[in-house]
Specification:
This protein is mainly α and 348 residues long. It contains twelve helices and no strands.
Length: 348
Amino acid sequence: MAETTSLDGPRERSRLSKGVFAVSGIMTTLVTYGVLQEKIMRVPYGEDHAFFRYSLFLVLCNRITTSAISAGALIASKKALNPVAPFYKYGIVSVTNILTTTCQYEALKYVSFPVQTLAKCAKMIPVMVWGTIIMQKKYKGRDYLFAILVTVGCSIFILYPAGSDLGPTDAFGRARENTMWGVSLMIGYLGFDGFTSTFQDKLFKGYDMEIHNQIFYTTFCSCVLSLSGLILQGQLVPAIQFVSSHNDCFFDIALLSTVATASQFFISYTIRTFGALTFATIMTTRQLVSIMLSCVWFHHPLSWEQWIGAVVVFGSLYAKTFMRNATPNPSPSDKVQDGPSSPVKGIP
């Protein structure tokens, strides 16, 4: 007994240190990512108070970083660089992933980061719809109940902004252009995001595919497509000129790409070490912390209706997470794919 007790102590300390490492890594990288994306898209740079307007350029920078890291991981692990699936299937994921990320960045021009972050929680419904269409998945009534509750909470949060958040400009002088356009972009984000995660799941189940293989080819396609889009729209040179003339913007974009890529390591490490339940709890907490930090840092007031909406959303997410843990051995057809997708998407 004494020997067993003496072994339990180091094991508990080791697990605690791993938990601290995982939580601090995810919180640091993803909260920093959230702050940076809002700063880049909503805060003016330089003495001329110019706004950065090239969302596709952010996508290109992020994908170049991730593609390089995933290629390095494949080479270091001596895994094959050859594509496992037909190339057009990587392209499908890449196209919808670019549309997802572009909608996410563009929406920040029209809605605040707290609204955007809370709206992301409503992705359960599109994921369930795509899961039914593409994967023929079946869901329980409880899953639909939580999805409806989260959607209702998000709707309350969006429809009842604080009075001081309705002026012609925000705290940094950016015009509040068209909130309905921002909501439309978030709907596009949810639809494309749900399709991307569901199609990624189908790829993993249909082919014996290494994660880094999918990441590399998907992000490589994204690099080509986003670069082509920038050139065709005539935005590549203006984006480079903007970044070169605003050094703080260059630093923000470089840091954004770095933390976005680094978060993938912590996401994979957490799921592998502690499982999906712990990861889902950490991610829900991260979203809550990101919203609170954004409200303080970027001066986003919240109305009492928005507080109620936030309580409904996060209460439903936490309840869903812990009720799933209490359910013994669900069958594969009953699993709801509303958690994180594979690391190709990166940021929930």
